[in-house]
Amino acid sequence: xxxxxxxxxxxxxxxxxxxxxxxxxxxxxxxxxxxxxxxxxxxxxxxxxxxxxxxxxxxxxxxxxxxxxxxxxxxxxxxxxxxxxxxxxxxxxxxxxx
Length: 98
Hints:
Layout: E1 23-28, H1 33-45, E2 48-53, H2 60-67, E3 76-78, E4 84-86, H3 90-97
Parallel strand pairs: 1-2
Antiparallel strand pairs: 1-3, 3-4
C-alpha cells in the first residue's frame, strides 16, 4: 500500500482546538456577520476566546463540517469539555462555561 493514502498532515482534530477552562475556541470566517456579533458579545461579557479562521487554518473547514453534519457553519464554538455549539449566543456560552 502506498503512503499516498495516509491522511494529510494538515488534518485538524477537535482535541487540538479544545480550550483551557473558562474560555472557548471559536471557528469563524472574516466575512461572517454572526461571528462578528458573537465576538462583540463575548468581548462585552468578558469571556475569553481564541478565534480560528477556517479559511486560513488548514484542516479546520473540514473539522467544522465534521461536527456540523457536513456543513461548514460558523461560528462553531468548542468548549473546554470538548463539546461544540453552532451559532450560540454569548448567554449560551456563559451558561455552558459555568
